[in-house]
Amino acid sequence: EAEVAQSPRYKITEKSQAVAFWCDPISGHATLYWYRQILGQGPELLVQFQDESVVDDSQLPKDRFSAERLKGVDSTLKIQPAELGDSAMYLCASSSRTSEETQYFGPGTRLLVL
Amino acid sequence: AQSVSQHNHHVILSEAASLELGCNYSYGGTVNLFWYVQYPGQHLQLLLKYFSGDPLVKGIKGFEAEFIKSKFSFNLRKPSVQWSDTAEYFCAVINNNAGNMLTFGGGTRLMVKP
Questions:
Q1: Is it the case that residue B30 has pLDDT exceeding 90?
Q2: Size of interface A-B (CB pairs under 8 A)
Q3: CB-CB contact of A107 with A7 (8 Å)
Q4: Of A17, A82, A106, B43, which has fewest CB within 10 angstroms of its CB?
Q5: Residues of chain B with C-beta less than 8 angstroms from the C-beta of A41
């Protein structure tokens, strides 16, 4: 069964450093999402792509976060500089054109900022 | 803004007990409703979803949920839980008038005692 791939699975960094997360959606899925899940809370959408275009990035802290999906396939989420409050699980999800409402999630990248 | 409430943050049950997890949402328009489950160490998986039609939806592993429009609720049920149901459960809603933005509740952590 096809799955959403994410790497790394875990990342420890010091504050003020740059970090990057990678996501490879299920093959053929046009829509890609990045979520942040703080411990004890539900995931919150950061950014949504349709192919290579950003559909919604209203919740993305653009002073330090950036996301790209240059070829409309895999995607990178970057934080620069990282802050202590960025410690969380970063989840990637994807959905197909024919069933956009149903999102499939990857295993996530757990970030710890020291 | 749309919100999703899960009133039970932690639930502890013995095996064979019946389960009901509450979920209420704030938006009054047309919605799509989901329950996701996250088993320990695993990624979010879709348990069941409701788009339209029969308000009683059956999902995987014996779970079901009932959409009650007048109560803005989508409670998850299982008549007899197993130890393997120990997981965190998330209710999520898409407001059909606001794209495919998935809004999650805070989650309910279920522990089933053997």
A1: no
A2: 53
A3: no
A4: A17
A5: 106-107
- Per the structure, the count of domains in chain A is 1
Buried-state track A56-83, b at ≥16 Cβ within 10 A, e below 16:
bbeebeeeebbbebeeebebebebeebe
Q: What is the pLDDT of residues B68-98, one digit of tens each?
A: 999 999 999 999 999 999 999 999 999 877 6
Tens-digit pLDDT profile for residues B38-50? 999 888 999 999 9
- State the best of B7, B100, B103 to mutate against chain A, taking most chain A CBs within 10 Å: B100
CATH code assigned at A50:
2.60.40.10
Architecture per CATH, B4-113: Sandwich (2.60)
Measured distance between the N- and C-terminal CA atoms of chain A, rounded to whole angstroms = 36
Which residue range is the domain that position A63 belongs to?
Answer: 5-113
Max alpha carbon distance in chain B (Å)?
44
